[in-house]
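Protein modeling request. Please complete all fields; requests missing the sequence field cannot be processed.
Requester role: graduate student
Desired output: 3D structure, token encoding
Chains: 1
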Amino acid sequence: MRIKSLRLKNFRNYADEEFAFDGGLNVLYGRNAQGKTNCAEAVFYLCTGVSPRAKKDRQMIRTGEECASISARAESRFGEVLLEADIYENKREIRINGGRIARNADLLGNINGVFFSPGELRLVQDGPEERRRFLNVSISQMSKNYYTALVRYNKILEQRNKLLKERDVSLIFETLPVWDAQLCRYAAEIVERREEYVAQLAPLAAEKHAFLTDGAEKLEIHADRYYGEGREEISARLAREFENNYEKDVRLGFTSCGPHRDDLKILIGGEDARVYGSQGQARTAALAIKLAEVEIFRALSGEYPVLILDDVMSELDLPRRRKLLEQIGGVQTILTCTHTEKVLFGKTVNKIRIVNGAVKR
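Delivered output (361 residues):
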């Protein structure tokens, strides 16, 4: 998979700009706050329908404008595809080959993307929601069924939580089993697919981490819960947990168990990386996880995703920069940095200089 060209109109600090990308390493370079990360963000948005930075789509609209537009021509082993997104204050329109899509699920899988920036330290250092977000974004690109199950689970969960705030306790206990039956159906699919994904991720991430650290440290990843094997067993386990927590949930006013509360354990040298890991250890662990994600995409789809590395070189020492460049050979990579001569070591790449939201040719 690769992005051939990208056009940004009224997106962040871009008025109207076009980019042409090669199939290998593409370097967006320039001083800080010129728009390099904005371009990287736009590419990932067209891959997933979500921004790695903005909580609201409208934050991506250029100041003073009513609409931001992103479009890209891309290709995969299935052929060429035109992806377009128009973002307004309170809505958006996404088109594939000119046809408007109604669901974000229809965007996923056209072009897969893996995004890494210094902010991805959150994956290791922050709370469980960051690790769940990583799992959800990554698995959703590979499985529309997972994405659909996740959307439906969250809608039912919202209704269940709303019920738990009712004052009529008898109504709550009478109605909860109805919601739980639906919740377990989608929760079981979410849990099963996460377990399959982590089983693939863990050994690959450990391998990448050993390469980056010359085997000095051992990375381990595993789920913090085990629900059983197969959807029937998982669903039955979840049903019991939901029922056993009825009184607790009524007291709290929200659903206290389920896949929306699960976490990943990330260990370095047998110790919890979130608690005991240094900044450098967290950065290397997060990068190893992202490189493992790249390999999972290749294994499942038959081709590499687009790899987006935002300002990653400034955070790595010289040996790890070299090792990273070894790892991304053969992968279309969009890399942002301030000084190309400090990170590329004489490699022939597609260099794109960005100055104040414009490509300097």
